[in-house]
Each structure stands twice: as structure tokens, then as C-alpha cells.
Amino acid sequence: MRVSVTLPVMGAMVAISMVALAPQAMAEPEVAGAQVVRLMSLERDGMNGVAAHHVSRLTRPSGETQAQQVRYDRNWLASVQVGELSSEASCLATALYHEARGESIAGQFAVAEVILNRVESPAFPNSVCGVVNQGAAAAVRGRCQFSFACDGKSLNMHEAEARRTAKRIAHVMTDGAPRALTEGATHFHTTQVSPRWSRVFERVTRIGSHIFYRDNNA
Hints:
55% helix
């Protein structure tokens, strides 16, 4: 940690300065003494500043830290440490992998926002897994909110890199990251289709091949 390196270095700098001032101290004790006091004051201020900085980082909840630091790029996402996912995060990761793995990082975050926005809407189930699997129990093609849930294909995530990306995004988003991309959107579709509801809901943005909408009546 920087604390273990910075503080001794600062102390050493003051010590060196004091040694360098020794001859001057013999000739001009009052001037040298004032300089030593100033250096010690600077060291104290620096130590206090470093301590406060690191204490705030150490005491801040991990979710809050990630929420404040989210960046929509692969380099940042690769730095996110993910352990075993909760059941909710696992459902979100599965949806991201099958619905959006071909999108950019921002595009995948945007789809995650839609799912979480639905969880908070009274028009949809109140859990991530409920939202992701809505309609799947009917086992009727076209009844699912997300096509992968009832298209009969395997839910396994075979592509390793895409799987890691989906899990990291799911972890960050269920850990409280901000939803800053879609303005509360609860629906999206690809540019290749034009569902009827797209003519009713408010279009808020397009990211990659997905267009996002908000149902203002929900």
C-alpha cells in the first residue's frame, strides 16, 4: 500500500533536510530552527492527508466504490474481482450472455439496466430471476420476455471471455452501480425488428444494435 511507502519517505526527506541544515543551524540557529519547524509542519500535514485518503477508501463499502468508479470499457471491467455470484446476479449474467454478448461493454450494461429497471416496476416481477424468466413457464415460443429463456437452446455459457464479461457486469450492477445509460428504460429491441410497443413507448436512446424505450405509464 502507498501508506507504508509514502510515510517513511516523507519522514526520511525531513531527516535529510535536517542533516543538511546542521551547518546552518550552528551559524544561524534561529533561521534553521524556523525551517525545521516548517518542514515538520509540512510532514504532519502530508501524513494527515494521506491517512484521511486511505481511511476513506478502506471504510467505504465495496459496492459504493465500484459504483463510483464504473467505466464502460474492457480494461476497467477486467479489473473487477468477482467471486461466487448470488442467484440474482447469476440470472442477470445468463441474460446478458445470451441477449447481449455481441454488444459493446456499454451495450451490455444498458441491457442490465433494463432488467433491473423492470425489477423496480410494478408491471414486472420483483426479482431479477423473475424478470429474466418471465413467460418461460408457459413453454410457448414467443411468450417469453427474453427469447433465450424459451427458445429451447442450451443456457450454458460456452464462450469463456463473454461469460467472464457477463458475470462481471452482473456483479457490478447488482452491487449497486448507477444506471446512467438508459434513462429508466424498461424495453429494448434490435434494429432488425419493430415491435408494436415501440410506437407507443418513449424512445430514450440507441446503443449499438439495441434501441431502448421507457414506458411512462408503468
